[in-house]
Amino acid sequence: xxETLFLTIFQKMIILTMVTAAPILxxxxxVGLAISIVQSVTQIQEQTLTFVPKIFAALIVLILxxxxxxxxxxxxxxxxxxxxxxxxx
Length: 89
Prior knowledge:
elongated
């Protein structure tokens, strides 16, 4: 395997990982920030209070974006297999 092919595939996999993980991570960040603001306003300093809403938000976003994530993953995988096929031939 040529190093150009390896680096291209590695780069596409890193980008694919970032693109598919971004909605879940962003929702967890937004929910965590909102709960932190509420905690600071109400002076409730319970550290475990943020975990359950973050998990629920991440699960809801995962359920809503799963078809899109699967579509992006399969199209990128097909594109990489085609690239490998063309490059090796």
